[in-house]
């Protein structure tokens, strides 16, 4: 079992990179937004890996952090969600955005990932909603017990409620706010910044 690879980014293509580790080139399938994929060729990269062994194929899937690797393993543990679908989901969302979409039961948001239909998205939400905890950009935990933005304390919670009132889903609102890194803003300021991320 290969836990991680550290080497030089030798080449990359559609959905994969090749890492030169002491003269051996490893092809690793990665999400489009992972750090290693965004690096320039010739730079050193580190990816945490999962090896998928099938009768006629052995494939490596790589991730920039252990959190993404854990999410990948959870996703492929769901019936009907294979490695390619899991990579597609992790390409479409940051880890925080994925967690928030799942814990707020926003199956519609998950359908934005290529190859993920309504039934697959609903199955992902159903099976993983109790296995993830959403976090705010400041690292604090979001209270998901009530599955409601009203449970989130402070102006961020008020901003999510306002965005939902404007017609956005809870997942879309929380994902947009997850990109707002400033702290101690007013509700109106959070809404304005979130709206920029929604357009």
What does this structure look like?
- About 9% of the residues have low confidence.
- Helix 2 packs across helix 3 and helix 7 crosses helix 8.
- 38% of the residues are buried.
- Helix content is 41%, strand content 20%.
- The N and C termini lie far apart (43 Å).
- Strands 1-2-3-5-4 form a five-stranded mixed β-barrel.
- With 199 residues, it is of the alpha+beta class.
Core attributes:
9 helices; alpha+beta; globular; 199 residues
Please outline the helices and strands:
Layout: E1 4-13, E2 16-21, E3 24-29, H1 35-38, E4 44-54, E5 57-63, H2 66-76, H3 83-92, H4 95-103, H5 107-110, H6 118-128, H7 154-165, H8 170-178, H9 187-198
Parallel strand pairs: 3-5
Antiparallel strand pairs: 1-2, 1-4, 2-3, 4-5
Summarize the structure in short:
The chain has 199 residues and is an alpha+beta fold. The protein has nine helices and five strands.
- Cα(first) to Cα(last) distance is 43 Å
Shape: globular
Neighbour order of strands in the largest sheet: 1-2-3-5-4
Largest sheet: 5 strands, mixed, barrel
Radius of gyration from the alpha-carbon trace, in angstroms: 18 Å
Which structural category do the helix and sheet elements fall into? alpha+beta
The poorly predicted ranges are 136-153
Indicate the percent of residues in helices. 40-55%
Count the E strands: 5
Oligomer: single chain
Number of helices in the DSSP assignment:
9
On the 0 to 100 scale, the average pLDDT is 84
Please indicate the percent range of residues in DSSP E strands (runs of 2 or more). 15-25%
The sequence of SSEs as H and E is EEEHEEHHHHHHHH
């Amino acid at each position: 079992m290969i836990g991680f690879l550290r080497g030089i980014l030798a080449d990359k293509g559609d959905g994969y990179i090749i890492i030169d580790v002491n003269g051996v080139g490893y092809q690793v399938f990665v999400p489009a937004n992972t750090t290693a994929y965004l690096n320039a060729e010739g730079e050193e990269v580190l990816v945490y890996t999962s090896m998928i062994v099938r009768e006629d194929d052995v494939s490596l899937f790589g991730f920039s952090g252990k959190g993404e690797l854990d999410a990948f393993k959870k996703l492929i543990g769901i019936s009907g969600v294979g490695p390619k679908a899991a990579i597609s989901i992790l390409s479409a969302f940051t880890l925080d955005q994925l967690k928030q979409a799942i814990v707020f039961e926003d199956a519609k948001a998950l359908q934005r990932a290529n190859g993920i239909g309504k039934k697959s998205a609903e199955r992902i939400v159903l099976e993983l909603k109790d296995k993830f905890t959403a976090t705010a950009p400041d690292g604090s935990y979001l209270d998901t017990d009530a599955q409601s933005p009203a449970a989130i304390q402070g102006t961020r919670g008020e901003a999510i409620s306002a965005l939902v009132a404007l017609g956005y889903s809870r997942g879309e609102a929380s994902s947009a706010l997850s990109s707002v890194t400033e702290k101690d803003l007013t509700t109106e300021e959070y809404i304005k910044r979130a709206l920029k991320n929604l357009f």
